[in-house]
Amino acid sequence: MKPILSIFLLLITAFSAAAKPADGSSPEELYKETLRICDHMADRVKSGSLKQPADIISVEAAAEDAQGHWHNMWVEVSSAYRRSEAGGFGCAFADLDRDGSPELLLATKEQFLLAIFTVKNGKSILVDAFWPRHCAAVRHGAIMLRSSGGMDVEEFSVNTLEGHTLRPLLRWNSARDADRNKTVYACGFGSGERQIPASMFNALCGAYTEVSGKGNAAFFSKYGFTEI
Q: pTM for the full model?
């Protein structure tokens, strides 16, 4: 196995201690309202009526404790659903932070991850939401993110879930330096970061693609997928 890929796989199997499960209602009960909202939005997508900003505002209001980009997620899902022959939405439950309380993962039938929810203070909250320019894969319990801001701006990270927050174990990015008229590459562990050569950036991206490409399929194969 390639050295970088070996290090990469080792990193994404690392976990940290997380908060205790919330008291009161079970996470599954708390997630019911979340799924009800998602099911309602899925119906709007299926009927082709998810077009007005008010539709998105209603979702944001219904999930006001959530932290994430519902607007981007549902606009992209609406477009993707109409292009897809398979279509459909579903969910799975998995304890990503190993605190004894499962997280809710929302996805399309094609296993494109849409959102991760967890429980905080007795409520279901949105950890993060995803769309084509901010996509995610779950592999060996780690959440792997890729975000794009254009041709010369890309960000990658391998994260663990701690409580309701994604904590990056490893991150790397490219950004255009207009003053020097060149693209600058950087990599960081924890809070530190340093510039790296383009060859190392490309090697990390290759390892990310190899591992994340198998991520969601393996995840839903293990934990199941319930259509909503």
A: 0.78
